[in-house]
User: What shape does this take?
Amino acid sequence: AQKITQTQPGMFVQEKEAVTLDCTYDTSDPSYGLFWYKQPSSGEMIFLIYQGSYDQQNATEGRYSLNFQKARKSANLVISASQLGDSAMYFCAMRENSGGSNYKLTFGKGTLLTVNP
Amino acid sequence: DSGVTQTPKHLITATGQRVTLRCSPRSGDLSVYWYQQSLDQGLQFLIQYYNGEERAKGNILERFSAQQFPDLHSELNLSSLELGDSALYFCASSVFPTGNEQYFGPGTRLTVT
Assistant: This one.
C-alpha cells in the first residue's frame, strides 16, 4: 500500500486565490512527521512546511498552512493568495520516527500546480 | 539557497561507466541522505549517513554505493551504469536527531546514453 497518496496529478488556480493540495498518508507509527516540498521547473526541492504528529496546532509558514486531520490521516497544504511563482510541482512526504535513527522521507507522486494570471 | 551543495550539476555518460556524485551538507548538519528522482519511480530514498556511519538503506541497487567522509561530505558512486539509471539525484542534509527539516541540494542530473 502506498504510504503517501496525492490524488491530484494537476491543479489550476487563479492568481490571488487560495488553493488546497491534498495528501493522505498511511502509517501505524504513533510518532511521525509530515512535510511539503515545492519543486519548480528548475528542479530544486524547496522545503515549505512541517507538521509533527503530536503537534496540537496546524503548522503555518507565511502563505502556507497545513490542514492536519489526524483521524482522517490527511495533511493538506493550503496556499493562500496564489502567485504566479507558485506554479510548480508540490510533494507531500512523511517521516516515520519509530525506526530508530532512520529519518528517511517517503514521498507522494506530486501535484503539478499551475497559477493562471 | 539551501546551503547544501552538489557537484556536478549535470553529468552525461555512457552505459557501463562509473560516476561519482558529490555532496556537501549544510554547515553543522551531520546527517546526509541520498534520493533518486526518476519519471517512473518518482522520488525514492537511497541511503542515509550520520557522522560517517551508514544509518539506513532504501531502494539502493548493489551497483551503487556511498560513503560519508570525516569532513562530512558524501559521495554516491554509481557503477555499471544502465539507461534506467538516468535520473535526478538529490542529496539532503539535516541536524540529526533534532532537526525536522531535510534541506535538499540542487541535484545532479545524470543522463546515461
